[in-house]
Please model this.
Amino acid sequence: MTLQEVLAIIEGKVISKRANLALVVEAACGADLMSDVLAFTHSGTLLLSGLVNPQVVRTAEMSDIKAIVFVRGKVPPPETIALADEKGIPLLATKYTMYEACGRLYRAGLKSCGLFDLSQHPREGSSSGG
Amino acid sequence: MSATEPISEERRAEITRIQELIYELKIGQIMTRKLIAMSPEQTMAELKDVLRINRISGAPVVEGGKLAGVISIEDLIKALESGEKEARIRDKMATNVQTVYQDESVVSAVNRFAQFGYGRLPVLDRSGELVGIVTQGDVVRGLLKRMQIEYQEEEIHRYRASHIFEDIVSDQTGLILRYRVKAKDFVSGGEASSKLKRALGRLGAPPQVARRVAIATYEAEMNIIIHTDKGGEIIAEIMPERIRIVATDSGPGIPDVEQAMQPGYSTAPDWIRELGFGAGMGLSNIQACADKMTLNSTMGVGSRLEIVFQVK
Model:
């Protein structure tokens, strides 16, 4: 799915100074926990997040994430946008919640970044946000 | 390009870069600034000479500093056929003119060429003043020039770097990169890993290896930022067959290394959790990325994390 299509589906807006809307994303991942993104995504993924600090962009850079969508109408601070422009990672924003933004993209055919076994749950009673 | 022919990865990267440039480059950067404009009062015979001498196929028509229309070689041919050599340009020009602004992306010019079949578009600044003209040829030349500059720059870096291992002969050649990491400096967190990832690319490491190293180093870097008081250091030893990362700090140390290794165990403060880190996934993430990982820690002295990646 191209970023142009993503933009239409989430009725979003481009917030980075440069964005190649012809880029193709192969799967998507919705997360506020950056360690999960680092652990479970593949190159070519679209990241949806409610976090707007520069580390979201760093995480994307390290994991070869193609683009980031900020949900719930959040707009990132200038340092996040500056880092994304430097690294060539397009930033988009949508008014929809994480749930609805992900739901819209999934319904339109953008697949998830994988399946996980329940047995992989780390520790009983831990509050890990997987 | 045939639609049935599979596109190679390398080719795909090139195509993507061209698409990116179409959005990145501004029309003002690629347009022709040397304006050859006509006045509406001039005749078609005068136009014929201007087109012939300058070897162009059309020109904007300007009246009082503002764009009044566009006159093309097609208009000239029609006028000559019907013996209207002395007709005024005013009566033969197209007045319903599509224009673009100089601060628009090249893509808007490309779209308009495709949509209307025009060969040229007058370029205006935001005050409506005519500042240049853009043709399909300008677009192609602008993209090629920019691609060539970028390609050469990155190629030179890549060439120089990837030859280190061949040019410098020893029984075992390695490159040591040292990065200092400041404690609690969350904003610049990731800079060391970012620089390392770029270096690995230039040294010719396979993208999947570079990605694994970058993710593991980033987690290690964030651990130093989050958990230490004085910061620490990341040393990358790069050899053709393996990459070794050593992250050291001078305390406080990890009380129970085995416990710290368990996924979900964390001692990170709330402010770090709110920033999307500190969920106790870091060390297990590093282990998953690495081929070998060793963590030693002494309370009050510091910690040493060694991560090894096999390249071949």
About this structure: Chain A touches chain B at residues 18-23, 32-36, 38-39, 43, 49, 51, 53-56, 58-59, 61-64, 79, 87-88, 122-123, 126-129 (CB under 8 Å). DSSP finds five helices and six strands in chain A. The helical segments of chain A are 3-9, 34-40, 54-62, 78-87, 98-107. Chain A has one domain: 3-108.
